[in-house]
């Protein structure tokens, strides 16, 4: 879907706060992503790779060259019961050693998980697919399900990435393997301890909507009300919910660089840059946990 807060005024500053690069499961390098943002008419983007901040320095350097503001971020995948709950973190102090150690542990678990899913696809469906082929799809970051999906597309097993998730490697599919188990509370605390602002990502995709309220109770400070997979009704619902609880309303396309009618594109979601100032102001009130502190995760 294409959703804009308000584009009537000319020369307004707009941003997309949910994007991915080759540092995780995106197709574009950080520099290519920034250039794409420029071409899409955006003034700012949030780079929020899964469990990785390896693309941030390149993205921020490219942003400085091209006049695009890059908000440093990350996307942590947490778990409550059988529900995957993604937490976006903005303005994190990503060079903290303990934070990088934690991300490295999660990324290592991603490789083992992806290998098991490939084995499941071979065992259950007798697909001619190898983990080596999946590894070839990984440019520089950690392996993820989109890399497996792209191999399935190349082999003609599915028509696109969306079908791969729907039929074979989605959460409820037989070949699916559970991820590294980071609790929702741990994910929110991790972002805050890193000096960032935790935001609940795409709540409309949750299996159980009570987990939206749980995330609010546990301390998220924003809700990604505007998302490429939300309906217009869901966008309005989550905007109202966020404002009711005094939370920041954010939005993003969840762009991975994929092409196709069913895939989100950069520029599909445009939110005012004033949201960035809200995030930055809130982050400045957080004191990052240093390595010597005993209460870090």
From TrEMBL:
Q: Where is the Polymerase/histidinol phosphatase N-terminal domain?
A: 15-80
Q: Which GO terms describe its molecular function?
A: 5'-3' DNA exonuclease activity; 5'-3' RNA exonuclease activity
State a single Pfam family of this protein. PHP
Ranges that cross the membrane:
none
- CDD domains with a match to the protein in the record: PHP_HisPPase_AMP
Matching PANTHER family: EXONUCLEASE, POLYMERASE_HISTIDINOL PHOSPHATASE N-TERMINAL DOMAIN-CONTAINING PROTEIN
Could you identify this protein by its name?
Polymerase/histidinol phosphatase N-terminal domain-containing protein
Species assigned in the record: Caldicoprobacter faecalis
């Amino acid at each position: 879907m294409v959703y804009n807060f308000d584009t009537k005024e000319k020369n307004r500053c707009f941003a997309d706060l949910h994007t991915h690069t080759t540092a995780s499961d995106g197709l574009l390098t950080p520099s290519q992503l920034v250039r794409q943002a420029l071409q899409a008419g955006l003034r700012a983007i949030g780079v929020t790779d899964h469990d990785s901040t390896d693309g941030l320095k390149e993205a921020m350097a490219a942003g400085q060259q091209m006049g695009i503001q890059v908000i440093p971020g990350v996307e942590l995948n947490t778990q409550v019961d059988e529900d995957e709950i993604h937490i976006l973190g903005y303005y994190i102090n990503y060079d903290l050693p303990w934070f990088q150690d934690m991300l490295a542990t999660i990324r290592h678990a991603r490789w083992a998980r992806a290998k098991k899913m490939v084995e499941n696809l071979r065992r259950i469906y007798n697909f001619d697919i190898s983990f080596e082929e999946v590894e070839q799809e990984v440019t520089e970051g950690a392996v993820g399900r989109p890399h497996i999906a792209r191999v399935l597309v190349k082999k003609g097993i599915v028509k696109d990435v969306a079908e791969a998730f729907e039929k074979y490697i989605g959460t409820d599919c037989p070949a699916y393997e559970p991820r590294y188990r980071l609790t929702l509370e741990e994910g929110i605390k991790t972002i805050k301890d890193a000096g960032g602002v935790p935001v609940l990502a795409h709540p409309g995709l949750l299996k159980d909507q009570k987990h939206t309220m749980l995330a609010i109770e546990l301390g998220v400070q924003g809700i990604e009300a505007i998302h490429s997979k939300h309906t217009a009704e869901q966008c309005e619902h989550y905007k109202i919910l966020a404002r009711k609880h005094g939370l920041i309303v954010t939005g993003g396309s969840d762009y991975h660089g994929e092409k196709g009618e069913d895939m989100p594109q950069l520029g599909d979601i445009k939110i005012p840059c004033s949201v960035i100032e809200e995030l930055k102001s809130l982050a400045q009130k957080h004191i990052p946990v240093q390595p010597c502190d005993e209460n870090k995760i």
